[in-house]
Amino acid sequence: MPRLKTYSQALKLFMFLSLIFVHGTCAWAADSQEKLDFGQIQHAYANGQFQDVLDSLDQLSEKEKGEGSAQRLKILSLARLGKTKESIEAYDQTLKESDQENDALLRELAIAAILPFRTDMREQIRGAAYTALKEIHTEDIVPYLEEGLEDKSGMIRALAAEGLAGLSSGRKSTRFRQALKDKAGLVRAAALRGLGRLADPSTQPLIRPLLKDEVKLVQITAAGTMIQLGHPEFWRRIQLEAQQGTGYERSTAFRIMGELGYDEALKILEQGLQDSQPSIRGAAASSLGKLHDKKAVGLLISALNDNSPVVRSIASVSLGQLKAEQAIPALTEGLHVTSPGVQAASVAALLQLSSPFGLVVETVRMLMSDTNPGIRSGVARALGNGHGRDVVNTLLLFLNDPVPKPRISAARSLGRIGDRQALSRLKLALRDQDEAVRATAAAAIVRVLESPNTL
User: Which residue in 145, 261, 270, 424 is deepest, having the highest Cβ count within 10 Å?
Assistant: First the structure.
């Protein structure tokens, strides 16, 4: 009996202490909630706890919620969670008392809207995300592109590497240099091209082993990179590949010749235009457009008579790149051929040569009404070489296309042109049902905001 009493007393003491502990914990939790400050919310955002950020913001007073810093975190957290529609609506709420865009916040929103797509299970959506990031030419994108080098898809890793290769700090990135050991040859080649642009002699020990890479494409690219680093003795190797290699290797050698701009390349590329394979002739025409040699213009004008529409299209684009005004009559003839691809390329070249929109408008209208979405996409892409209100307004019409592909091309072209008048329509495209359209529109918004154009 005494033992039972002792046990009963112990049980009562345990329950009493438990009540004290629970009460204390609740009190501590309530006290923490009362003392929740904005710094904690910012910390949660920095740690990627975006839903926690939104939950915490809901606990703030109406006055605190209306503050700019709180609104910013709400907008960006919604975007990072993939709730782009709600994010842009919250952003528009902040503009009610102002007629001007908040450029800094809109830029942050647009980038945040791209980021969730990087983890999508579908490769094509991840590809759209990294293609969009690759088009944003600012150094703050580097960390996101570096993360892309960890993707399971070689195609995605190659896109990320290409994006890093186009940015100064990206080319200097340790993670980028590690891509020289990537298991995919395309990724290794992209890293080599970036290091060639960096032109840092200290990278030679990293590059030399790839001269004997198991993939011929990587070997040729490594030789081109060594030339850029001050070793012209590798030029002979590029020449041999351009003249004796197989199709893909020859095309790679041609591309490197165009990038290096050596005078000796002209004769080899001229021979390439006579090759029996259209892919080789096309590669030669593309590289001629990078040589900035007056003699290349005549060769490319002749290539406009090639029996392959693809080669004629590439030659047209190259003439536009060379600003070859003497090619305008021949390019104008290309507007009236039977190949839609050649017509679109002629539009692109003529607009790049600053021809008036009136010269190409009839061809553009005809291609816009084509039943093939690939053709509509092609002309939308071509319009990205133009400027002016008529070009922009036409591209805005493409954003209403029933198929995503032309909408994607139109958004990308609007970003390239950089007309701020397109911002409102691109913001609407952030709500598009297609994820790739949203990602492309977001990148276009960033490019418009960073463009000097004020059309």
Answer: 145
CB-count exposure of residue 11 (10 Å: 0-12, 13-18, 19+):
exposed
Q: Do the Cβ atoms of 97 and 82 come closer than 8 Å?
A: no
The three-point CA angle 23-29-32 to 5° equals 140
Residues 6 or more apart from 124 whose CB is under 8 A from it? 436
pLDDT for residue 423 is more than 50 = yes
Cα separation of the two ends of the chain: 96
3 state SS of 264: coil
CA distance 196 to 202: 12
**What is the DSSP-derived secondary structure letter of residue 229?**
T
Contact 190, 165 (CB under 8 A): yes
Which tens digit of pLDDT belongs to each residue from 336-366?
999 999 999 999 999 999 999 999 999 999 9
Select from 449, 407, 403 the least CA-distant residue to 429.
407
CA–CA separation, 248 and 265 (whole Å): 18
Q: 438: which residues sit within 8 A by CB, 6+ positions away?
A: 84, 113, 117, 429, 430, 431, 432
Encoding tokens for residue 305?
Answer: 């008579």
Q: Are 108 and 140 in contact, with CB atoms under 8 Å apart?
A: no
pLDDT, residue 1, reads 44
Task: Provide the whole-model pTM.
Answer: 0.88
Q: What is the pLDDT of residues 125-168, one digit of tens each?
A: 999 999 999 999 999 999 999 999 999 999 999 999 999 999 99
Decide: 371 and 340 in contact? Cβ < 8 Å: no
Would you give the distance in Å from CA 153 to the centre of its chain? Answer: 17
| 159 membership: H or E segment, kind and range | helix 154-165
Q: Which amino acid is at 90?
A: A
DSSP state, 59?
T
Nearest 5°: phi and psi at 138? Answer: -130, 150
Distance in angstroms (rounded) separating the CA atoms of residues 427 and 448: 12
Alpha carbon distance 88, 47 (integer Å): 23
Q: What is the dihedral of CA 250, 252, 256, 258, to 10 degrees?
A: 70
The chain-wide mean pLDDT, for the chain, equals: 91
**Structure confidence by residue, pLDDT tens digits, 253-307:** 999 999 998 889 999 999 999 999 999 999 999 999 999 888 999 999 999 999 9
